[in-house]
Amino acid sequence: MKFLGTGRAQVAFTTVMDVIFAREQQAPVTAIARYGRGNNWGILSPEGSPLTVADLKGKTIGIYNDAWTKAQLTMMLADASLTLDDVSTVAASDDTVPLLLQKKVDAITGITNAEGTGMATTGGQRAEFLAATKHGVPNSPIFMLAGNDDWLKANPDVAKAFLRATQKSIEYAAAHQDEAVAAFFELYSKAYDEKFITQQWKDTVPLFGEMGPDLMVHNNADWVALLDALKKFKVVSDVLEPSAYYTNQYLAQ
């Protein structure tokens, strides 16, 4: 967001909350496309040990120390008349999965195609997943593509071409998963484990849903639901209109 807001980057792969927090700081950034159709965040527990929200009372949960994680957890707990005071939390510096595998916590927060993938590849198990969206959390996409406002206004045709190419790439990579993973691994073999990225892409593809013209198009209702929740739980101090955070004008409609 710092690079994007200062113009050192023109576009960025980011999260919906980064865009909202950046706008709160009056940074000139706008979400220009969604990446995925919903919210796949929730509570993960070891395979064979499913949990309900009520079961979380008295449990120790591995979390990330950011406002949106705590807000979503608060919303989930409220569904069973619980609060953060009813659980113990342990903040992970970069990955909650080791906390769960080492049995330092009873459950962790995360998403199906990151922590869920890690549980499968590192832990050799398919974690039990308690979906946040079934317990009061808005089903708003987590990941976004965002652009610097000044650059977008000066380069609308380039922005549109970039998003057209991105959509074609997603569609091709989803249809040719082995080829996509091989290409990714060739470029980033020093940074990522091949087993992990192979499983992660398999876990990611279903999140796009049916490929079509609306693949990357923002849904206003998603933003309304998210912003209402952020206001209710006081995650941000000043909630703006949805149109202040996103635009679809650079996407083919």
Folded structure, characterized:
There is one protein chain. By secondary structure, the protein is α/β, with parallel strands linked by helices. The chain is built from 10 helices and 8 strands. The strands form 2 sheets. A 5-stranded mixed beta sheet has the order 5-4-6-3-7. A 3-stranded antiparallel beta sheet has the order 1-8-2. Helix 3 links the parallel strand 4 (60-64) and strand 5 (88-92). Helix 5 crosses helix 9, helix 7 (156-175) crosses helix 8 and helix 8 (177-188) packs across helix 9 (194-204). It is globular and about 55 Å long. The protein starts with a helix and ends in a 21-residue tail after the last helix.
**Regions with little confidence, pLDDT below 50 for 5+ residues:** none
Ends distance: 27 Å
Percentage of β-strand residues? 15-25%
Order of helices and strands: HEHEEEHEHEHEEHHHHH
Helix run count = 10
Tell me how many strands there are. Answer: 8
User: How would you describe the shape?
Assistant: globular
Radius of gyration: 19 Å
Strand order, sheet with most strands: 5-4-6-3-7
Secondary-structure content class? alpha/beta
- Largest sheet descriptor: 5 strands, mixed
- Average pLDDT rating: 95
Summarize the amount of helix as a percent range: 25-40%
Protein topology:
Layout: H1 2-5, E1 11-15, H2 16-24, E2 29-35, E3 41-45, E4 60-64, H3 67-78, E5 88-92, H4 97-101, E6 107-111, H5 115-121, E7 128-131, E8 143-148, H6 149-154, H7 156-175, H8 177-188, H9 194-204, H10 220-232
Parallel strand pairs: 4-5, 4-6
Antiparallel strand pairs: 1-8, 2-8, 3-6, 3-7
Helix pairs in contact: 5-9, 7-8, 8-9
